[in-house]
């Protein structure tokens, strides 16, 4: 749509302002530069217009008018996304959910909670905890990442093995379509097959099909005990064998299964203030966690399966947490990976799914190919092995070649170019490696049906052909 | 679309036949009357044309041609649906998946299985079992209901509490759109956020957006032990309290929580060959099940929580299975409800979700209102209390009034007019009680985007406005 920017902007603002309070419309120099920030360091640009509604009705009016004027919008939650979806592009106004942060008290009987989209994940976790319940998703960015952003990317994190991704937590949504329709489905029923489940459209579609404004989320009973074990192992095969053993012997008690490959562990503990749980030097480290309902028995059972794994030669060494403090300390080591990696300038990182059966070959072949291009490249890999999801980082002078090697390798072994971070702006050139023309065409059909003027997060995931 | 039936049919057939083997196209008197059967007893009509493809490619060619000719299709799986979706309407041809019943050997490492849409659920269960794994969904119609039909209705059943509905089992689908595009996503990854999750479109949309031809389904470790307990309780409140206690104390061990209200239990055991586990006369009966990983310990733990519930006065009497045979016998009592109810001519039945907090009031008020219309009405209620899902049956001379009372009551208390059976043809007049105009309009928008000629299961769920 060809637009005369100044005239259109003035007309849009004149129609928006009667609906919105003064703090809801920020323009020009009054716009805080943080709206232009981007975790990738690629910069975006400071937007000319930031809209900060307080309710779904205000979001609806904004979307209706912006659709009419062809004003493109980029939706902002906590801006912690790792695929560039929130990076402001020329001509885009920001729609920020930052004033919609209410979290209701949990419904204890139904084990549900209703939160506005701008509420940080941690607020939901804390509200659940205060009611004696637990929220099933946890990610490193919990303090900043919002419920809406989590839903838009179908966030996963560390306990997908037990509780599933965000899709499994969403019992209902309130979402606004580009034409201003508000879809409200917040009854929080565990089972509801009354027509299409429209909520699914908005989970993982990265804000391109509508703007989520509220969510009804599933909560779980709070476990009576949490125990973490930190293990060193001789190979990925051993780590996969241990995963199988723990699943078989502990069933649903197993709540997380994280992996950290050499040389990442050694490099990160070198700069860590706290003592390392195990010495560096092993090829693979695993953090396994159980959440149990019998405080002592479940921990003993976990320890006994681990001891058997040591006796069987699957695990070389293991430390099991004996207190909540030790439990927390083991998780701090896991989170140290992010602190270490974020400090490396120019590091490239991808978030991939790989079938366990082909993972060892993928790692071997990708490393050889990357080193063939750049003999001094450093490769740092950790992730959620229980879900087949690796975070794979490369410190290299040949980033373009490394991306190419990794993503083509992922596609060749039946993996996914994004396990949990999404596609955003940064990965869309790789999407056709794992999605067929028929799938991409069906995605565009959905986009055209729900956002015919292409105003919502345009160009995220795919371009309109 | 106005059609000259005979000419169009001949043209359609002449274009289909080169693609299909002789057994794939059945017309006129050669059509077996069973394609016109309908569980509701409402009859449909024997179709003029039955198409029986053997592959997604054949399904694609059928859909492409039928879209072009405006030939409406009703998709048939096992025809066990309870909402009339498979009932043949005038002018509809049947697309039966009955020749696509292949079930691959499970992938043990990934704990997944790929099955064609026409395979009965039980084939998947048995293939999983033979590989030392378990499929998470079980329903009474397991021997006949197909994977494709299960997906189309997002089937639930008895272990949703632990494993979720079908949506939670689907890791990927192969589905054919009305225009003949084939969407294939069978990698079976636990985490994949590479663009829209198109699989979600086909789960629970009752065959109106595309035809599922294959599915990659999640499997679980087979439990080491299964124990069932059959309890009598004084009230629904007591049953809800027991559910809370079991969830809190047993966490994910709890795998089913079924309820059966008076007078159903007494009526059904009167005609049962096997001895009843507990005498009739209590207001409420519960069948609770655990699936554990420690053969003796988990059963003891279950029994000890139940004994505490007896001591606390929550449970009046309880029988706990001591062997696989006793376990099976308690489930047979649960399934006796269907045998008893199917024998009652003219019985009306609904499949509803009700929030636990309002369930007692709903039951009381619905019963009073139904009896005010028909003093001799009998009301039989059982269901999946752990999910808030009741199967509510009425033997009445005033069925229309009873439907009205039940569905309006459901809507008033924030429930769902279909928890797991779907809307089909039979419940669409009630859909607007629980879905807003904006939601219905969004559903129609999806239908128009994916089936613009309205050839796939037309008129199921909603009519095109």
From TrEMBL, chains A, B:
Its cofactor is FAD. GO terms for molecular function: FAD binding; oxidoreductase activity. Keywords: FAD, Flavoprotein, Oxidoreductase. The keyword Flavoprotein applies. Residues 42-222 form the FAD-binding PCMH-type domain. The keyword DNA-binding does not apply. Belongs to the FAD-binding oxidoreductase/transferase type 4 family. SUPFAM superfamilies: FAD-binding/transporter-associated domain-like, FAD-linked oxidases, C-terminal domain. GO terms for biological process: respiratory electron transport chain. InterPro entries: FAD-bd_oxidored_4_C, FAD-bd_PCMH, FAD-bd_PCMH-like_sf, FAD-bd_PCMH_sub1, FAD-bd_PCMH_sub2, FAD-linked_Oxase-like_C, FAD-oxidored/transferase_4, Oxid_FAD_bind_N. This is FAD-binding oxidoreductase. Coiled coil: none annotated.
């Amino acid at each position: 749509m060809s637009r005369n920017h100044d005239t259109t902007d003035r007309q849009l603002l004149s129609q928006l302002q009667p609906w919105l309070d003064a703090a809801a419309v920020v323009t020009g120099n009054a716009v805080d530069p943080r709206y232009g920030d981007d975790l990738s360091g690629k910069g975006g640009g400071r937007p000319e217009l930031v809209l900060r509604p307080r309710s779904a009705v205000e979001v609806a009016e904004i979307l209706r008018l912006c659709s009419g004027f062809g004003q493109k919008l980029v939706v902002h939650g906590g801006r912690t996304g790792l695929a560039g979806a929130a990076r402001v592009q020329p001509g885009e106004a920001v729609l920020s959910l930052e004033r919609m942060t209410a979290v209701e008290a949990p419904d204890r009987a139904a084990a549900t909670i209703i939160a506005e989209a701008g509420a940080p994940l941690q607020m939901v976790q804390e509200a659940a905890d205060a009611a004696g319940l637990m929220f099933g998703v946890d990610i490193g960015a919990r303090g900043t990442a919002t419920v809406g952003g989590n839903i838009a990317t179908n966030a996963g994190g560390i306990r997908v093995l037990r509780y599933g991704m965000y899709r499994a937590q969403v019992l209902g949504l309130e979402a606004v379509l580009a034409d201003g329709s508000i879809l409200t489905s917040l009854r929080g029923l565990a089972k509801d097959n009354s027509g299409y489940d429209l909520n699914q459209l908005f989970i993982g579609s990265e804000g391109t099909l509508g703007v989520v404004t509220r969510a009804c989320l599933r909560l779980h009973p709070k476990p009576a005990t949490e125990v973490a074990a930190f293990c060193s192992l001789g190979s990925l095969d051993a780590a996969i064998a241990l995963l199988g053993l723990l699943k078989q012997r502990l069933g649903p008690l197993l709540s997380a299964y994280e992996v950290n490959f050499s040389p990442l562990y050694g490099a990160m503990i070198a700069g860590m203030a706290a003592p390392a749980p195990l010495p560096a030097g092993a090829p693979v480290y695993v953090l396994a966690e159980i959440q149990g309902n019998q405080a002592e028995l479940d921990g003993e059972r976990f320890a006994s399966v681990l001891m058997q794994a040591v006796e069987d030669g699957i695990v070389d060494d293991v430390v099991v947490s004996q207190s909540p403090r030790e439990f927390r300390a083991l998780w701090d080591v896991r989170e140290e990976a992010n602190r270490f990696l974020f400090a490396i300038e120019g590091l490239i990182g991808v978030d991939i799914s790989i079938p366990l059966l082909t993972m060892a070959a993928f790692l071997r072949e990708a490393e050889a190919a990357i080193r063939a291009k750049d003999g001094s490249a450093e490769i740092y890999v950790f992730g959620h092995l229980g879900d087949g999801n690796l975070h794979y980082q490369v410190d290299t002078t040949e980033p373009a070649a490394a991306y190419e090697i990794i993503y083509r390798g992922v596609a060749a072994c039946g993996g996914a170019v994004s396990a949990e971070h999404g596609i955003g702006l940064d990965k869309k050139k790789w999407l056709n490696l794992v999605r067929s023309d028929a799938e991409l065409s069906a995605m565009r059909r959905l986009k055209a049906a729900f956002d015919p003027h292409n105003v919502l997060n345009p160009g995220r995931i795919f371009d309109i052909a």
